[in-house]
Amino acid sequence: MIVDIKNQNCDNRVVNKEADGKVSPELAAKVKGLFDALGPNASSSEREELDRLLLTQAILAMNYSYCPYSDFPVGAALLSKTGQLFLGCNVENASYGGTICAERTAVVKAVSEGFREFDTVAVVCQKNKDAWPCGFCRQFLSEFGADLRIIVEGSSGTVEVMSMSDLLPRMFGPAALG
Ligand code: THU
Fold first, then answer.
1. Is 167 left (phi over 0), alpha (psi -120 to 50) or beta?
2. Ligand 1 site, residue 134, Cβ cutoff 6 A
3. What distance in angstroms lies between residue 51's CA and the mean position of ligand 1's atoms?
4. Reduced to 3 states, what is the DSSP secondary structure of residue 105?
5. How confident is the model over 15-57, as pLDDT tens digits?
6. Which of 28, 42, 92, 106 is 20 to 30 A from 119 (CA-CA)?
7. Residue 7: pLDDT above 60?
């Protein structure tokens, strides 16, 4: 399945009372099953199946984006090293600097539920397919994932993968504090 983010609608001024952005038990089980089956010798197509599922979930998360100021919806799907999935969207604020990016929302949800080690984060922006986490998010993500995989959907529908050390070389991490 090719993930297509062109036709996603995000209405930032209407609260969806029916919304249920929680990861369903069925989806959680599917993600965990795919992840557990990967193993060290996983083929690239097995890995890609999981990556595309994560991108699809990031698109769903993006639908809850609250971005009335930038009108730039972002979604993230964060996979823990034990196979749990956490979703996040950007949440803006009238005091603009209070804005939280989608990736950090997902990390905060995960860490506050007891998960601190992550395998992959999928990031989607409605208005720009080939956009990678901002500097704040690179720093924030690296705290819990020096070896994290970051994936986005490339402009031609491919899954684009980068490592944390590619995005943030010589990162300032917990070890730097001595
Ligand atoms: N944003 C993210 O959610 N993640 C990023 O990595 C870059 C930027 C959000 C913040 C703000 O709500 C909007 O995108 C425009 O900057």
1. alpha
2. yes
3. 21
4. helix
5. 666 667 788 899 999 999 999 999 888 888 889 999 999 999 9
6. 92
7. no
Q: Which residue do the tokens 């704040």 mark?
A: 136
Residue 33 is predicted with a pLDDT of 95
Evaluate: CB of 92 within 6 angstroms of ligand 1.
yes
Task: Pick the atom of ligand 1 nearest to 65's CA.
Answer: 12
For helices 44-62 and 102-111, give the axis angle rounded to 10 degrees: 100
- Polymer length in residues for the chain: 178
**pLDDT given at position 6:** 59
| Tokens at 149, concatenated | 């995989």
**66 strand-pairing partners:** 91
Tokens found for residue 83:
């196979």
Q: Is the pLDDT of residue 107 over 70?
A: yes
Contact by Cβ (8 Å): 131, 167:
no
Catalytic-role residue among 26, 48, 49, 103? 103
Cα–Cα distance measured from residue 44 to residue 39, given in angstroms and rounded to the nearest whole number: 12
Q: What's the rounded Cα separation, in Å, for the pair 2 and 4? A: 6
pLDDT in tens, 130-163: 899 999 999 999 999 889 999 999 988 899 999 9
For 158, other C-beta atoms within 10 Å of its C-beta total 13
Q: Is 92 a catalytic residue?
A: no
User: Nearest C-alpha to atom 3 of ligand 1 is from which residue?
Assistant: 101
